[in-house]
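User: Quick sanity check before I run a bigger batch. Here is a single chain. Can you write out its predicted 3D structure?
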Amino acid sequence: MTKKIYRGILLASIVTLITCLVFTIGVQYQIYDESTQKSLKNKAYIISVESNTENLEKYRNIEERITLIDQSGKVLYDNKAISSNMENHLGRKEVAEALKNGEGYAVRRSETLGSKTCYYALRLDDGNVLRVSGNSFTVWAVIMELLPPIAAIAIMTFVLATVLASVISKKILKPINNIDLNKPEIEESYEELTPFINKINAQNRKLDRQIAKLTRSRREFEIISENMSEGLLLTDINGNIITHNKGTEKFFDVTENINGCNILTVNRSEIFRKIFDDITEKKHGEEVLCLGRRFYNITANPVYDENNAVCGAVILIVDITEKENREKLRREFTANVSHELKTPLTSISGISDMLMNGLVAPEDIKGFAKDINKESARLISLVNDIIKLSELDEGGADSDDARQVDLAEVSKEVAERLAPVADKKGVVIKTEGGKAEITAGESLVFEMIYNLCDNAVKYNKENGSVTVMTGVKDGAPFVSVKDTGIGIASEYTDRIFERFYRVDKSRSKESGGTGLGLSIVKHIAMSLGGEITVDSTPGVGTNITVVFKN
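Assistant: Done. Predicted structure follows.
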């Protein structure tokens, strides 16, 4: 507040000073301008007595310029120039006004020279016009002339204003700064502050009561919920919340104080109603609540008073989302593995039964053997991918010692390995970019880039292309695999890294994929501290980038 008052007084002083200076300069300039005009007018009247060319010759060396102009605008005489070479002056403002009104005045400025020329024209009895002109300073030239004294005055005024502002502001605020906010005394402060001081006294009393109440509540809460990551609610028998902890606020996205509110304001699901029914009947209640994509285990126990009557409840809320997701993933994984294993095994079993029972013509045996070999290879590939995922889950997928691996070199090796497969489909696979080294096991890096490129070839269009780019951006090595394939709709890009997930199941079957390739890519990238981004447009292509920030 002291600074605000100080700045206010100082600013007012400066504004006043500037205003006074501007006003003074303006008045002085106006007086100077009028004086110049009057001087020119007087000289014009004096010279007009001798207005013929011969008499005007004696004024040739005076400072002012004298010009005699006839009614058509032709210059008859000029003491500073050859009249015959001068242009017609009928269009000049001061000349036109003189011919019309008897006299005229005009000012023409030169911004480059910092000066102006004043012209006064007087119509003579014979109809000719006598014009007298002289140079005068512009307002900026006047200011520049007066700048040293103006600067001296401004500095002295600023210093004086600074000192006075500091003294006055401190003097004004001294009684306010001396007020004891715990026990304010009205007599020692300004009379205008009386209502404010009364409010402070009332607020102090109110705060004392609230602090005492909050202290009691805090002690109760700290005893029960200190260092708890779970949600905790204490309610009375009617379901009104007595106290709660931060875990509850986090789980149920509570942004306001819910103490004193009914528990149904936190969540109105049937689970809470059932739990209170159990508590009323002196039963232990336990339910699982699903909120969005998260799961919470709700456990409620009744609280008894000295008469063994239920007087409230203690409700414990535990986030079991990870557990539920793991269980769901396990069930899905088991179902998918069973399905994926069943398909080739059923095919192999059917063909072998036909061969064993002699139901296949000799010339068809080679074709059936080829089918068995194909399904066996698919089965082996699936088992190998499952084993690889299992190793990644256990953190032991790479037996190589970690060392500096160049993503560019590995990308070239992958491109060479996949070239025959890509050629069969008419797909061109190429590498671009520069050196990008990370610390990792080489086999893991190869596996990751191979799976990305293999997918890009499988789901590409005929005569398409796959571009593997490597480099370093903002200090982070990266590898990106861009194809011109079928693309992925935006609603599926978050799911393509799930195990066995396929956007187009019929196309995936034709391509022979197991549905685990991108899951392996995700696990490897995570284990190496990489982040994966997907940019895809259906019908245009997909670009998957892995950036290694660690």
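The longest strand covers residues 294-304.

User: Great, the batch can go ahead then.
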